[in-house]
Write a structure and sequence with these properties.
The protein has 393 residues and is α+β, with helices and mostly antiparallel strands. It contains eleven helices and 17 strands. It has a five-stranded antiparallel β-sheet with strand order 8-7-9-15-10. A four-stranded antiparallel β-sheet has the order 1-2-6-3, covered by helices on one side. A two-stranded antiparallel ribbon has the order 4-5. Helix 5 crosses helix 10.
Amino acid sequence: MLRYLTAGESHGKALVAIVEGIPSGLSLCEEDINIELKRRQVGYGRGPRMEIERDRVEIISGIRWGKTLGSPFAIRIENLDWKNWKDRMSIYPGYENKDVAVTMPRPGHADIAGALKYNQKDIRNILERASARETTVRVAVGAVAKVILREFGINIHSFVISIGGIRAEINKRKLEDLINAAEKSDLRCPDPDAEKKMKEKIHKIQNEGDSLGGIFEVLATGVPVGLGSHVHWDRKLDGRIAGAIMSIQAIKGVEIGIGFEAEQLPGSKFHDQIFYSPPENGQIKKGGFYRRSNNAGGIEGGISNGETIIVKAFMKPISTLYKPLNSVDIITKEKVKAQVERSDICRVPSAAVIGEAALAIELAGSMIEKFSGDSLEEMKRNFLSYLEYLKNF
């Protein structure tokens, strides 16, 4: 079982995570994680925080001589901005200062609901943990999950479909072309014409003190049939993936496959017909049962069906606006303008990278459950045996 726990505040000393369930014998280094952290930070529309932070991971435990031990894996990512927040975020008493307390909640954020739930008169005690800064360490955990998945030929990709109502043209284009184009784009958008219009709109919105949301797509290729299960609600793969993606800050909608587009289609047009071809040269990945369409997004009945897993997510506009909305001071109860925190204008490109991490974690966990083993070698033996079973089905 793969599970993890994160801790840390946006302006605290560091973000940390403990991961349990990683098999022993996996080759892993800090740079495997740092590459993903860098991908999360880039993107047109990001705010000034990204000029301060240069996220680098420190592996604290779980590795010896470049290979995982099978014991808990712990990591730490320093917040470089901590030096400017030592007093305001001190863990020691005596630094309390009412003059820096946040009392003006932002519409759309966790501010007011969290303050009421946890009986906090200073909203900073809520917003520091609710901040999307927390996703930094989740991307780090996702980077480890990606390394596991690559051992089994599974790869995770993403691209941005739309920002602010401007939609990229992605139909009838090869997946490989979309992925390559997205990696070269500041907005992770594979359509250059749409990207140009998106940038123009982001710049316009920035000048207006506003923010933008959008839609991104995350895909997993090479996923074998049989991950997840139909037997209980909490073991359904699509349910677990949707929950993981939905847990990303500011995500308000998740689709698997073509999602809500299916409401326009009759069943005969939506469902992916099943075909069969004999395994080529004895390799099940080059034969067996397959579909010529993938409207279901690679999952049927809560179980992966061997096709590419496709997930789309909608990210709402960022809640912090430089031209703030109306709010109410939680102390005086008077009408005020909402708190202004340093923030991004558009975070959809980085959300796509975070979505990759969320998908990778769920798939890696499902692979560990399905092909359970304490070591990577044991998992691979079980995996190869399973492929042999599929070949002879």
